[in-house]
Amino acid sequence: MSVPNHVAVIMDGNGRWAKSKGLPRKMGHVQGGKNVEDMLYIADELGIKYFTVYAFSTENWKRSEEEVSALMTLLRSYLSSGFKKTAKNNVRIRIIGDRTGLAKDIQELINDLEESSKDNTGLQFQIAINYGSRDEIVRMMRSMALEIEAGNLSSDDITEEYVSKHLDTGDIPDPDLLIRTSGEQRLSNFLLWQLAYTEFYFTDKHWPEFDKEELVKAIESYSKRDRRFGDAK
Ligand code: IPE
Ligand code: IPE
Ligand code: MG
C-alpha cells in the first residue's frame, strides 16, 4: 500500500454527529477535537509525514456567537494543553491562516507552540485556523505588492515557486490526499492553490466517528489510483 506523504482533512460533520446523538453542537466539537488527537497518532503510525486539518475557516465567523465562542474556548484548551503533549512526542505544529484575526492570547499560544516544536522531526502537523484560501492568496498578493513598491521584487521574479513559497504553507509539500468527511463534496475555501493535483476522497462518516479503519480505507483507495500530473503514462 503506498502511503501518501501529506494528508489534508476537511473535518466536517461535528454538528450533525451531535444531532444524531441528541447532543448540543458544542459536544460535537468536543468529540471532534478528541478525534484530532487520536488521528495524529494513527497517521504517524501509518507512515504519513504531513497531516493538515481544517479547524476554523474565515467563513466560520458567520456562525452564532455561542458556537464561535465554544470553538475558541476549545481551541485555547488544545493550544495550551492538549497539543503541548503532542509536541512532546516529537510532532512539529504549525498554524496556517490569518492569526492576526484571532484574540491576542490565542496568538501567543500559537507562537509558543510553534516555537517549542520547531525542531521536532516527527509528524508535521498543520492546523488551519481563521484560514481561507482566498484570504491567504490576497494576503500573499499584498505582501508581494509591498515588495514591488519597495523595489525588492520585479514581475519576472513572480513564478509558481515564488507564490508557493509565500503562501502560509511555505515549505510544506502539497497534499497528496484530501479527505472530506460527512458527505459534502466541496472545498469550502481550503487550500485552493495547493490542491491542484491532489487526489480527493469523500466519506459519509462524520468527523467524530472517523477512525483508523476509515483512514486506512481512504489510503487504500488512494494507493489504487493512477496518479497523473498532466503527463501520459
Ligand atoms: C466541522 O463540523 C467543524 C467546524 C466547521 C468548526 P461542523 O460544525 O461544520 O458540522 P456540521 O457540518 O454542521 O454537521
Ligand atoms: C469547512 O466546513 C470548514 C471546516 C471544516 C473548518 P464548513 O462546515 O464550515 O463548510 P460549509 O459551510 O459546509 O461549506
Ligand atoms: Mg459543516
Mean pLDDT: 97
Count of discrete structural domains: 1
Q: Could you spell the SSE succession in H and E letters?
A: EHHEHEHEHHEEH
Number of strands: 6
User: Which regions have little confidence, pLDDT < 50, spanning 5+ residues?
Assistant: none
CATH class: Alpha Beta
> Which CATH architecture?
3-Layer(aba) Sandwich
Quick structural overview:
It contains 7 helices and 6 strands, in the order βααβαβαβααββα. By secondary structure, the chain is of the alpha/beta class.
Describe this structure in words.
This protein is α/β, with parallel strands linked by helices and 233 residues long. It has a single domain (6-132, 175-223), classed as Decaprenyl diphosphate synthase-like (Undecaprenyl pyrophosphate synthetase, 3-Layer(aba) Sandwich). Helix content is 44%, strand content 15%. β3, α4 and β4 (124-131) form a beta-alpha-beta unit. α1 packs across α2 and α2 packs parallel to α3. Bound molecules: 3-methylbut-3-enyl trihydrogen diphosphate (2 copies) and magnesium ion.
